[in-house]
Amino acid sequence: IFVFIHGGYWQARSRHDSGFMAKTMSDAQILTAVIDYPIAPQVTIDEIVACIEESFVKVLQWAKELSTKVYICGHSAGAHLASTLLLIDWETKYNIEPEIFGGFFLISGIYNLTPLVPTYINEPLGMTVTIAKNHSPLYRDSKDYWSALKSVPIFCICAEYDPTSFHDQNEQYGSYLKQIGYDNITIKKLDDCDHFDIMEQLIERDQPLTNIILSFIENSA
Fold first, then answer.
1. Which residue intervals define the domain Alpha/beta hydrolase fold-3 in the entry (predicted)?
2. Domain containing residue 78
3. Of 3, 25, 86, 97, which shows the fewest CB atoms inside 10 Å?
4. 6, 43, 116, 119, 137 from 127: Cα distances, Å
5. DSSP bridge pairs for 106
6. Residue 204 DSSP class
7. Are the C-beta atoms of residues 37 and 55 closer than 8 Å to each other?
8. What pTM, to 2 d.p., does this model score?
9. Rounded Cα gap, residues 102 and 68, in angstroms
10. Which CATH number do you get for residue 204?
């Protein structure tokens, strides 16, 4: 099952405009689940993260029933939300074994939220520096991460024409995961694409990002 979490700085977009990869996945005999979540200012970042966990539990239980693996992909703020799934002990909390996790594809993600606090982006979110740090995977201690996923493949990918801050955070987060013991990390930059059209590649089979994801899933399923 390919699970997608959309971006939009936690305050825009929905599942209704985020299922564009479903046909590509279906053609490759892969199921797609697009996770929706309430957005700011109606909810806080704490509530959004909790909602992602609640929704993802249902996907994991579905995968368990089907005896299949789950591959998680998030874009921008969605990559941040996907990365928070690494901080949950799914076995203790939900009786979900780590083997069900096939891999993570974190695309142009945000892993340090503190630079956003003084910006307009934070106006609907209302994060303090403390809240932003708590929800920043780059600030979370290694003991906060579920050790059972230390060997799960994680792809940290950004676009050539992403803003510099996205390049930096992509490199920093991939390096941090390696530093705390994750042993299957790929840090990659895709050429000739920007922050938005990197995801649009998934509409077609013969595109760089599509090839990375499908080749990996097909070889690991």
1. 2-182
2. 2-220
3. 97
4. 20, 11, 9, 11, 15
5. 74, 156
6. S
7. yes
8. 0.97
9. 9
10. 3.40.50.1820
- Tell me the two tokens of residue 139: 């600030």
Overall number of domains in the chain: 1
- How far apart (Å, rounded) are the C-alpha atoms in residues 18 and 4? 8
Amino acid at 159: A
Chain-centroid distance of CA 31 in Å reads: 17
* Burial (CB count <10 Å: 0-12, 13-18, 19+), residue 148: middle
Query: What are the distances in angstroms from CA 133 to CA 128, 155, 215?
Result: 9, 23, 35
Tell me: the pLDDT tens digits for 7-64?
Answer: 999 998 877 778 999 999 999 999 999 999 999 999 999 999 999 999 999 999 999 9
Catalytic annotation, residues: 76, 162, 195
How does pLDDT run across 159-203, given as a tens digit for each residue? 999 999 999 999 999 999 999 999 999 999 999 999 999 999 999
CA dist., res. 82 & res. 52, Å (int):
8
Instruction: Give the span between the Cα atoms of 114 and 109, in whole angstroms.
Output: 14
Q: Write out the two tokens for 207.
A: 């595109």
Quick one: how far is CA 95 from the chain centroid?
22
